[in-house]
Design a protein that fits this description.
The complex is a heterodimer of chains A (214) and B (181).
Chain A (H helix, E strand, L loop, with lengths): L25 H10 L3 H23 L2 H17 L10 H18 L1 H6 L14 H11 L8 H13 L3 H13 L3 H8 L3 H19 L4
Helix pairs in contact in A: 1-2, 2-3, 2-4, 2-8, 3-4, 4-9, 6-7, 7-10, 8-10, 9-10
Chain B lengths: L11 H11 L5 H13 L1 H16 L12 H38 L3 H23 L3 H7 L1 H5 L1 H7 L2 H9 L2 H4 L7
Helix pairs in contact in B: 2-3
The chains are: A mainly alpha (214), B mainly alpha (181).
Chain lengths: 214, 181
């Protein structure tokens, strides 16, 4: 059972803005309207966040179907608990906090993972697909070779897959969502200092993986 | 504290500082330190350049959108959830009402049973009162014993007036009833 509820907003870090500041977040306002029973406001939130959520989940889980299923589950969780919502964080921080917990559970559930086989070209949650590994190994032997866009994309995906789950989540939130260290910390239940270390190690790993192809 | 390039291989905190600088997460004073170090240290500049390049390559990652049906499918699911919730609430209310009704029924006595019980009670009471007030049958038989013993004579005479006349004349006192044939 997932343990995320809307009242489980991430811990407030010392330098986090005051509670009232979140009320200026337009998406928090939409959520507060949804809390009062305005379903149109909730539909607007789904429209606003569906692509962003699915994109992050796609890289976390490794395939589109799983990303959409889990994305739907995230919205379902939010909707079910809308009446208990409190504006303790930015809406995006809260939503990705739920998504992160659901994704962690999904990854732990090996049976479910087997039920959702990856597409041939997809990277998997357990690492790069053989095709990507093969390309990385082959290209490493030919450093002067110029990679085309597809090959570069596959290498970058393989590099991302080489990160552990927490590093990957931090990278995706920072790269895709432009989240600050404080927001990433709130999303992942970490301290900002831990996020700083996490991202530092992640970027070192990415550089080490990709350096041969620079 | 000045940043030295020889910190690179030894100190993870140095890389953290460089990465935080690239991410715009360093306080202003620390950021100025890094900039000064970069301006005077080619090795550090190369380090930052590689970190930055690897990070920029992440722009090649695909960012798939949700499918066209995602929104409608999600909202339809929410309606089902909402409907299920409402239905559950209605069922809860119905269950509560049913429980209350059954509770009331549990303690209510149907009219037919009440009437029957009343009749039985009245009968029992009547019987008890009758038992207390009525004389035993044996007493009645003893009172009429003389009559019973002469019933055949009375049948033969057949006239109450004639009997009274015989009684006044004292005939009945001397006469024994005939033996049955």
């Amino acid at each position: 059972m997932f343990d995320v509820t809307p009242t489980e907003s991430p811990d407030v870090v010392t330098s986090e803005p005051a509670l009232s500041q979140y009320l200026h977040d337009p998406d928090v306002q939409l959520m507060l309207r949804a809390k009062r029973g305005d379903d149109a406001a909730f539909s607007q939130l789904v429209e606003n966040y569906q692509d962003r959520l699915v994109a992050v989940l796609y890289h976390l889980l490794g395939n589109q179907d799983a990303a959409e299923d889990l994305g739907q589950e995230v919205f379902l969780r939010i909707y079910r608990n809308r009446t208990k919502y409190e504006a303790k964080a930015k809406f995006s921080t809260w939503m990705f906090h739920i998504a992160n917990n659901l994704a962690s559970n999904w990854r732990r559930d090996g049976a479910r993972r087997r039920e959702a086989p990856l597409a041939g070209s997809d990277s998997g949650p357990l690492g790069a697909r053989p095709q990507e590994q093969l390309l990385a190994e082959k290209s490493a032997l030919m450093p002067a070779r110029v990679l085309d866009r597809n090959e570069s994309q596959m290498l970058v995906r393989a590099a991302l897959e080489s990160l552990n789950d927490r590093q990957k989540m931090a990278v995706l939130l920072h790269k895709f969502e432009q989240m600050s260290y404080i927001d990433i910390a709130a999303t992942m239940d970490l301290t900002p200092q831990a996020v700083k270390s996490l991202l530092s190690r992640a970027r070192e790993n990415l550089r080490a993986y990709l350096e041969p192809f620079f | 504290m000045a940043i030295m390039s020889d910190e690179i291989p030894q100190s993870p905190t140095f890389t953290e500082k460089l990465v935080a600088y690239l991410d715009g997460e360093l306080p202003e004073a620390a950021a100025r330190e890094v900039e000064q170090a970069l301006s005077s240290d080619p090795a550090m500049r190369a380090e930052v350049e590689q970190l930055n390049r690897a990070w920029e390559l992440l722009d090649l990652l695909p960012r798939p959108n949700a499918s066209g049906e995602f929104s409608s499918r999600t909202l339809a699911t929410l309606q089902v959830v909402d409907g299920t919730t409402e239905l559950a609430a209605e069922q809860e209310i119905a269950a509560t009402v049913a429980f209350e009704t059954s509770s009331q029924r549990r303690f209510a006595v149907p009219p037919l049973v009440a009437w029957s019980a009343g009749l039985v009670l009245v009968s029992v009471l009547g019987f008890a009162v009758g038992r207390m007030t009525a004389r035993p049958n044996s007493d009645v038989w003893l009172d009429d014993l003389t009559l019973i013993e002469h019933i055949d004579v009375y049948h033969e005479i057949g006239d109450a007036e004639f009997l009274r006349d015989l009684k006044q004349r004292g005939v009945l006192d001397e006469r024994r009833p005939p033996e049955p044939r």
